[in-house]
C-alpha cells in the first residue's frame, strides 16, 4: 500500500458553526506565508509544533461527528494556510468525497500560482472541493503588502481562476479602521467582486483585538494595538458598498 502523506495540524474543532455551511469538523493546519496584522492565530505561522495526522486518521476522527452535520455540514480545512500542505489536503479530500462528505477550504490564497507543480495539484484538488472561503485582505496591492507582508497579485489571480472554473466561493473582508475601511477601497473591492461569476456570499468581518494577549504571550509586536473596532455605522456602510445583500449564501450542487 502506498504510504499516505501526513499533515501538520495545529488543532481540531469538532463543532464549527462559522466555517462554511452547516456544522463543520474544522481542521486548522500549521504554516502560513502571510503575516496579517489582524491574524487571530500567529501560533499557526511556523511549520513546527502541532500534531501529525494521516488523511485516513483525520477522516476516521471526523466521521465520529457526522450525525451532527445535517445536510450541509462536513469538513473545513483552515489554518494557517492549508494550501501550503496541498498534497495532504488532496489526499484528505479524495477520502472525504469517497465518504460523500462536504469539503470546504478556508484560504487566503497566498501560495497560489499558475505554475507547476502547484497548479496541476490545485486543479486536481478543485475536483474534490465543494466551496472555498476566501479573503480579500486589501484590494490595493501596496496597502496589501503593508497589511500582510506580501503582494495580492497572485491572490486576485486565484479569484479570477476560481471564477473561470465556476468554483463556488464565499468572500470575506476584514474591516479595519483607517486601513481597509475607506470608501475608495471598499468601492474598488466591490467592483472586483462584480467581475466574478462564482460568488455565493460576501461577509464583512469587523476587526477586533481579541488576539492581542496571544501576541503578547508570544513576544510578537501587535501592530494594530491602537486600532479600534469599527463602529456599527461603518460596518453597515461597508456591507452596503460591498452589496452583501446581493449574495444569498449556499447552493449545494
Brief characterization of the structure:
The chain is of the alpha/beta class. The chain has helices at residues 55-63, 86-98, 118-126, 141-148, 153-164, 183-194, 212-217, 232-241; strands at residues 7-16, 24-29, 51-53, 74-78, 102-107, 131-135, 169-175, 199-206.
Describe this entry's structure for a reader.
The chain has 253 residues and is α/β, with parallel strands linked by helices. It has helices at 55-63, 86-98, 118-126, 141-148, 153-164, 183-194, 212-217, 232-241; strands at 7-16, 24-29, 51-53, 74-78, 102-107, 131-135, 169-175, 199-206. The protein has a single domain (7-246), classed as Aldolase class I (TIM Barrel), CATH 3.20.20. The chain is built from 8 helices and 8 strands. It has an 8-stranded mixed sheet with strand order 3-1-2-4-5-6-7-8. The radius of gyration is 18 Å and the shape is globular. The mean pLDDT is 94.
> What is the name of the CATH superfamily?
Aldolase class I
Briefly note the CATH topology name: TIM Barrel
DSSP strand count: 8
Q: Helicity range of the residues?
A: 25-40%
Return the domain count.
1
As residue ranges, the low-confidence spans are none
Number of helices: 8
Major sheet details: 8 strands, mixed
Mean pLDDT: 94
Structural class: alpha/beta
CATH architectural arrangement: Alpha-Beta Barrel
Radius of gyration from the CA trace?
Answer: 18 Å
Order of helices and strands: EEEHEHEHEHHEHEHH
User: Gap between N and C termini, in Å?
Assistant: 33 Å
* Shape, principal axes of CA atoms: globular
Portion in beta strands: 15-25%
Amino acid at each position: 500500500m502506498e504510504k499516505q502523506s501526513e499533515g501538520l495540524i495545529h488543532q481540531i474543532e469538532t463543532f464549527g458553526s462559522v466555517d462554511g455551511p452547516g456544522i463543520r469538523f474544522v481542521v486548522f493546519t500549521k504554516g502560513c506565508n502571510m503575516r496579517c496584522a489582524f491574524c487571530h492565530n500567529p501560533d499557526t505561522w511556523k511549520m513546527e509544533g502541532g500534531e501529525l495526522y494521516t488523511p485516513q486518521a483525520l477522516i476516521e476522527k471526523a466521521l465520529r461527528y457526522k450525525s451532527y452535520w445535517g445536510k450541509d455540514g462536513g469538513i473545513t480545512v483552515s489554518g494557517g494556510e492549508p494550501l501550503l500542505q496541498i498534497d495532504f489536503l488532496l489526499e484528505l479530500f479524495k477520502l472525504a468525497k469517497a465518504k460523500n462528505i462536504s469539503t470546504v477550504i478556508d484560504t487566503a490564497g497566498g501560495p497560489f500560482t499558475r505554475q507547476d507543480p502547484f497548479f496541476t495539484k490545485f486543479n486536481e484538488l478543485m475536483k474534490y472541493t465543494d466551496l472555498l472561503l476566501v479573503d480579500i485582505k486589501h484590494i490595493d496591492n501596496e496597502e496589501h503588502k503593508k497589511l500582510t507582508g506580501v503582494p495580492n497579485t497572485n491572490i486576485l489571480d486565484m479569484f479570477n481562476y476560481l471564477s473561470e472554473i465556476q468554483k463556488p466561493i464565499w468572500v470575506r473582508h476584514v474591516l479595519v479602521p483607517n486601513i481597509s475601511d475607506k470608501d475608495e477601497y471598499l468601492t474598488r473591492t466591490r467592483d472586483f467582486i462584480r467581475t466574478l461569476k462564482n460568488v455565493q456570499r460576501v461577509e464583512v468581518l469587523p476587526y477586533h483585538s481579541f488576539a492581542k494577549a496571544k501576541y503578547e504571550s508570544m513576544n510578537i509586536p501587535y501592530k494594530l494595538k491602537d486600532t479600534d473596532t469599527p463602529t456599527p455605522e461603518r460596518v453597515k456602510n461597508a456591507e452596503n458598498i460591498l452589496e452583501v445583500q446581493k449574495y444569498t449564501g449556499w447552493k449545494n450542487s
